[in-house]
Amino acid sequence: MAVKIELLTSPTCPSCPMAKRVLGEYSKTNKLPLKEISTSSKEGKKWAEKYGVMSVPSFVIYGEKRPLLKTGAPTPKELTDMVLIADGKKEVKKNFIQKLFF
To answer: I need a labelling partner for 58 at 20 to 30 A (CA). Which of 8, 25, 48, 94 fits?
Structure first.
């Protein structure tokens, strides 16, 4: 399984455009698939329920080792670390805020 990213957004969220831009640039630069899902769709509602997400933007990075979930707009450095951790190429640092799903 290759690394892929799913981003949950809302049409009324003021932070979602920035998260979409950062994740979009990162996925394009690193040739990773990015799927945006809106909370206004059935799929978005199911996604939020599945992961227990109560706010947007939220995103999951799926990798070889584990998926990682984060709420909020990430920095490029956070994305790089998360991708490496999700793919099993980097160990989790202490104080690295994350929510893991196994």
So the answer is: 94
